[in-house]
Amino acid sequence: MADNSYDAIVIGAGVIGAAVALSMARRGRRVLGLDRLPAAGYGSTSGSCAIVRPFYSTYEGVAMGWECHFYWDGWAGYLDAPDPTALTRYIACGNTVVLCSKNKYLKHILKIMDEVGCPYELVPADALRARLPTVSLDSYLPARRPEDPDFGATNGEALPGAAFFPTGGYVTDPQGAARDLQEAAGRAGATFRFNADVAGILREGGRCAGVRLATGEILRAPVVVNVAGPHSHKVNVMAGVEEGMKIKTRALRHEVAHVPAPRGLEQSKGGTHFSDADTATYCRPESGDHILIGSEDPDCDPREWVDPDNFDRNPTEQSRIQVMRLAQRFPDIGIPQRVRTVVDLYDVSDDWLPIYDRSDLDGFYMAVGTSGNQFKTAPLVGEMMAHLIDACEGGHDHDAEPVDFHLRHIDRVVNMGFCSRRREINPDSSFSVVG
Ligand SMILES: Cc1cc2nc3c(=O)[nH]c(=O)nc-3n(C[C@H](O)[C@H](O)[C@H](O)COP(=O)(O)OP(=O)(O)OC[C@H]3O[C@@H](n4cnc5c(N)ncnc54)[C@H](O)[C@@H]3O)c2cc1C
Question: Which pTM value belongs to this model?
Fold first, then answer.
């Protein structure tokens, strides 16, 4: 075999690309991972809040969200890591989600949780106040912008409490998680090249045959997987496979604020991930007893669809607005004049559900459209993609008869047609980062 030939090339070494490389290498393929950046996880993975949670709007989303908790909980074992102390940490603090009219008091989601059998607990208002001493249970819907004269005014209703999901939490170092996966893939025989920018997809005999780098170098493989995150659309265009996709992807700019935690949400005191559709925010504990605050994309905020090669990495007033909104729920949050902010991109699909699929070009696959909510599923998605690729390369017609995947920790089966590029828009989706 010539040095520039592989069994499979994975474009992108973010948390999902590294997981795909690991799972394919474990199944015996000679894998090359490529990334235009200098190290694994330096793309949108590095800006992730890395929250792990089982609540989603679809059966498959819940099953996958619940299943992946067990990968993170057994991270060192899953990676077969020689030094577990060197790995990123998973803090399984659970997820607290307020019940409000915006999320329809979670009725739809809790029904799916029951169907899947995933555990949760209802937390009435008094018990929530006991856990989070400074929490306000006033409702502020609809979310507003600060220039609105009613910004910060309650609508007079009170929230009944929250739901608590024990099989969730967050990963302390998302970029480190990608590095952990890359190193495990290396132990399984995969190689990686960084600062390697893919500029073209090769076709031969009607199928994919490898990639061309921006330097002109040719790397050959019968299997190529697009895991390019917010660049997924550009790579699909290079491969000429966009036409065959009913669901497409594009990059959405997002800001995450970083401020001191309110009482009860401190990392040192076991604070949980907190999701609040009523103020359109979510937050999770961060080191130094800070919290990260993200947005649940209320209708009043403009959506910034951008070119992933040309967008503004400077924070705007948006992150401060997110702090002000969460301060409605936790009035003891200080609102700094200048808020420390992470700016990064989601790779959003038309229905905010991922695409884990083949393409119309034989040998060309994609794990894309992760829509701001698929960090958590990375190790699972690696295994699902390796399973799908083995089936398709073995002659299975996945488009006609989508493959099933067995979730081994929770003993449930999901059909991968759920993640098809050819699906109709899924009406059960939340059409938001909730998925
Ligand atoms: C602000 C923010 C908060 C988030 N919070 C959460 C959360 O709390 N929980 C959750 O589950 N998910 C969350 N997500 C989503 C999650 O982080 C992503 O779904 C996940 O990190 C995507 O991983 P990836 O490997 O697909 O993409 P990326 O990490 O973006 O990796 C793609 C890689 O492809 C490379 N690449 C692109 N084009 C080329 C090319 N032509 N040639 C070579 N290399 C190329 C890039 O350099 C990049 O490194 C969040 C995302 C953001 C932005």
Answer: 0.98
